[in-house]
Amino acid sequence: xAKSKVLDPAENPLYQYDAAxxxxxxxxxxxxxxxxxxxxxxxxxxxxxxxxxxPIAGVNDSKKLSEKKREAxxxxxxxxxxxxxxxxxxxxxxDRDNILNATMSGMRQAVEGLEITxxxxxxxxxxxxxxxxxxxxxxxxxxxxxxAISAASILAKVSRDRYMLQLDQEYPQYQLAKHxxxxxxxxxxxxxxxxxxxxxxxxFLKKQGYWPEDK
Length: 215
Fold this sequence. Notes:
Layout: H1 14-25, E1 28-34, E2 43-49, H2 67-80, E3 83-89, H3 91-97, H4 99-112, E4 120-124, E5 136-139, H5 147-170, H6 176-179, H7 185-194, H8 202-207
Helix pairs in contact: 2-5, 3-4
């Protein structure tokens, strides 16, 4: 890796972590998800291989960034990454397989869909999906540790948010643009008033003991 092109670790220490991973393993991918907790909509998973010679300033855990900053970084990541893949796993699969298995399946699909096969996959969290054809490693709080994982977190978060905004245009009565499907007081009130649509995770509502009649 050309030292002159690596961001100053003082500005973004996530790249220092990635530099060590590249040195030890060569090409690697970061993987993260968005939307495991909401009552409706898909869980979105992204895998990303960043270009170590073309770093992106400001990359960080998507939860620590403003919506405006995430949107700007999304476009820059898409432009500068060596490759990336974004996968949506819908409520039907979540209800059938449970959210953990659905997320693991999405991660596997995202990695397998990359145009470049990485030597290593770093997964945000404490477990890795089964069945990967290359070595993988879980990284607790990986989106705040690795630039590649944080880039994946941005791709997943922005993609899911954009999907929910589109859904809001079709079902404005649920005010999805405000809560993105999470279980806020407003959201439960809208469910009580308007009932359940096909994009809801029925298993989540049942688990929480909240199961209104469809209206």
